[in-house]
């Protein structure tokens, strides 16, 4: 199984007086624009994922919608998963993923540092190996979903993927 791990885009700062509660924080116009650019770039070199799982928080779900549209996967296919909430246990996410036996590719959307923990867990590392940027993404090829056993296929910063897209 290919697992794509995507951190949400730039959201309204929690210190902003207009900021809603943390679960309701949303992508800024700049965050939407940059996330759309990254999503289009990634969609240009992957097949549409068969499963899309998102944290229920607004900013992660908005990021999932942008990626679903760019990948041609359909927004209605996005499922909310509490295992992708901030502080979620990586093991719980992989148990949930393992229940979907026939899925050959999945894309998940969530938050830092939880996604870095999830990535480390998938690779069998004892500590975080990455620090995903906002709208940053990674791809892991899982040879076993639970307990996970995988290898890192790629990791890309939003800036790198946007720069590549500009060169085309």
What's the gist of this structure?
By secondary structure, this protein is of the alpha/beta class. It is built from five helices and six strands, in the order βαβαβαβαββα.
Protein described:
- The protein is an alpha/beta fold.
- The chain has a single domain, classed as 3-Layer(aba) Sandwich (Rossmann fold).
- The chain is 34% helix and 21% strand.
- It is built from five helices and six strands; from the N terminus they run βαβαβαβαββα.
- It has helices at residues 29-43, 58-71, 90-98, 114-122, 158-167, and strands at 2-7, 51-54, 78-80, 105-110, 137-144, 149-156.
- The chain has a six-stranded mixed beta sheet with strand order 3-2-4-1-5-6, with helices on both faces.
- Strand 2 (51-54), helix 2 and strand 3 form a beta-alpha-beta unit.
- The longest helix has 15 residues, at 29-43.
- The protein is globular.
- The model has no long low-confidence stretch (mean pLDDT 94).
What features would you highlight for this structure?
single chain, 168 residues, alpha/beta, Rossmann fold, 6-stranded mixed beta sheet, 6 strands, 34% helix, 21% strand
Counting H and I runs of at least 4 residues, what is the number of helices? 5
From the 3D coordinates, which CATH architecture would you assign? 3-Layer(aba) Sandwich
Question: For the terminal residues, how far apart are their CA atoms?
Answer: 29 Å
Number of domains as seen in the coordinates: 1
CATH superfamily: Phosphoglycerate mutase-like
- Order of strands, widest sheet: 3-2-4-1-5-6
Oligomeric form of this entry? single chain
Indicate the overall shape.
Answer: globular
According to DSSP, the number of beta strands is 6
Low-confidence runs of at least 5 consecutive residues: none
What portion of the residues fall into strands of 2 or more residues? 15-25%
For the sheet with most strands, the description reads: 6 strands, mixed
CATH topology, by name, is: Rossmann fold
Radius of gyration: 15 Å
In helices, the fraction of residues equals 25-40%
């Amino acid at each position: 199984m290919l697992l794509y791990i995507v951190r949400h885009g730039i959201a309204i700062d929690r210190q902003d007086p207009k900021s809603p509660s943390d679960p309701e924080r949303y992508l800024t116009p700049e965050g939407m624009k940059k996330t759309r650019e990254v999503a289009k770039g990634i969609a240009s070199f992957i097949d549409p994922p068969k499963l899309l799982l998102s944290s229920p928080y607004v900013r992660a779900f908005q990021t999932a919608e942008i990626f679903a549209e760019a990948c041609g996967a359909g927004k209605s296919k996005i499922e909310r998963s509490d295992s992708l909430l901030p502080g979620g246990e990586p093991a719980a996410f992989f148990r949930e993923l393992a229940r979907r036996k026939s899925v050959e590719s999945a894309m998940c959307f969530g938050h830092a540092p939880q996604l870095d923990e999830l990535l480390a867990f998938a690779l069998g590392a004892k500590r975080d190996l990455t620090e995903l940027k906002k709208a940053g993404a990674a791809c892991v090829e899982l040879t076993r979903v639970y307990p996970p056993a995988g290898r890192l296929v790629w990791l890309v910063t939003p800036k790198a993927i946007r720069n590549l897209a500009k060169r085309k």
